[in-house]
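Weekly sync notes, structure subgroup
Attendees: PM, AL, DS (notes)

Item 1: joint prediction request from the bench team. They want all two components modeled as one assembly rather than separately. Inputs as received:
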Amino acid sequence: MICAGIDAGSRSIKAVLFDTSRSQILASGLADQGVEQERLATELFEKLLREAGLERAQISGVVATGYGRNAIRFADATVTEITCHARGVHRLVPEARTVIEVGGQDSKVIMLEAGGRVRDFAMNDRCAAGTGRFLEMVATRLDMNWEELSGLAQQSKKPALISNMCVVFAETEIIGLLAQGRPLGDVVAGVQMAIATRVSALAGRGMSPPVCFTGGVALQPGMARALAEVLACPVQVAPQPQFTGALGAAISASPANQAGSGL
Amino acid sequence: MNPAPRKLDLAAWDERHEQLRQAGLREPDYGGSLRRHVIHGQDFRLEQLHFDNSPAALRLWNFLLTENERLAQARAQGDKIVGTMKDLGTVPVMAYALPGLRAFYPDGAWWTPCLMEGSDKLFQQADALGIDASFCPARAMLGAFENQEHFPAPDLLICSTGAVCDDFSAIAQRLEHLGHPILWWEMPRRRRPAAGEPPCALPGNLVAPKMLVDCVQAELQRVREALGELAGRDLDDLLLARGIETANQVRRLLAALRKTVYAAPAAPLPALEMLVAEMLALHFCSDRAESLTVLAGLLAEAQSRLQQNQIIIGPDAVRIFWVNPVADLRAMNLLEDLGGRICGSDFMFSHALDLIPEDLPPLEALARIALADPMVGPTSDRADRIVRECRENQVEAVVISRIPGASHCAREGEMIREVIQQQLAIPAIELEIPPVCDALLPALSSRLQALMEIARARRTE
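Output from the run, pasted for the record:
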């Protein structure tokens, strides 16, 4: 049985085709987010179907997740990112007890029980501090792309101290640091530490290891290191972290997960 | 024949009201279509809400939304108006015991910016008076006192201070500086008796040192004298005892309504109407006798629906306990749209739902109930009560809503959440709901939907 998951995030749309009987990802893909979310999601979905050599009729169910999930009208059901990331990570890293997802617009800490059931969660979605938006602001300010930003952070020997409370305040601090001639790598690494500190505050006292890091920001190598340092425990990056939510959505589309879930 | 229970938007209620009117619906003098509150009162938020379709709910909403008119009429008839603040449920029992007095909570103006979607400009006026958005939305009352466009200026203002909300005390202090004299009375912080200290039982399974009850009683004596002076008649024990009896009639009705609705396998009335009904406990919406009629109508409707197996939210809905009142009423509709139902609540005034002891000297009885206020004691007391009620009604998840700026205790929500998770092992979330939450609706929906998913997943595993 093949199911599809669509994760309509704030920065990009991700999609996964998943064979539930063989527990195997058949195809995955990503497209930039835009105003016409449903059209973009449809195009991405159809592209994956072509790549996998499948017809629409062969897909047993489609679940949409992400902040734009309600705009994906061809989905059979919607499930929140909390449940989807939990299911996606549990499939990939079954031993994980805490999921940290840092996306473009929000961040989440999801505590799991053995078996992958969600025990608790916390979200930050009212403030750019602690989200990928913070890194985007720095990239724009430094006129760099994400890859360049990541490379710079790895060169840092002493991350700068930057406020984790507010991106607007932090931007002023960054301008000040650059004016003082601080190395760019220290500034970027400082931003990563600020995000990690903010996320750790979100995790609070309920967090337990092993910790799995997912979401688009997990692709920045320095971020996992910063999180591990702040949380004082190892942090494992999920395989293909940007697709965890879409994978969880595809898993949620299987009849076994829909039974009794109100979907 | 009554149609099946369902929720209606304002347009559908217009039609329903017309049908009811043609069918001979008898309404009180404050009755009429809900639409008129949008047209005349600029209560624009009503256009975003969904209401229960019963005549009992119509009466409840009309009763709520005509309170300022009712106060103005009372003033015109020669009644004295008492603005009582912060104690939430005690001083109004005393005021209504005296003929010719009407008490209300000016603090209730905190809901006005939601109902009027900010068109009232009350927050801006409070800003201009130096009480900005870092304060509780109760600051809206400053603007209402200044512009006189909402409630009539009270003849007497009474406010509790001390172990109550520090934010509110600051707002009320500013009000006094603006030329509105206040009779302050002190509320000590409730604590458990120390070893050897004579204890005193309070409503809600609480206990406090007797000396604290004596202290509150002495403070309420000052309030009693001020009310008597305003009314031109002593508030003697007989009058006070009668006032307590009538207040308890309201509380008994509410207790029966809460039990009927919250404990039922499926909900006969929606969460929004229940929230408004519970609010009547505070000051009877400025008409004690009518609040009894309104509540009796709602109770009869709920009982009748259950007898006929007519429900408004199905038995599959996730059973939710809701902590704290919401600043934006849409949150109550949203919870039900996402598959939840309210099966318990603590809207910050649970002491106003408890019966006032009738076997004690009346002022002492009121002192005991005032001291049982969840806001003046340790958070653990409040959490214990929530846990107890969650168990009684088989609650599956808890929502703790916060109002931006309201800072009774910055960590209270987190502490309640920890107790719930330790003692009940059910999911609990904290949500921030500002007075107009339109921009936050997607985030709010996500969190509530996630809570439902987690609760449902626990059913199947």
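Discussion: The first strand of chain B starts at residue 7 and ends at 8.
Action: AL to compare against the crosslinking data before next sync.
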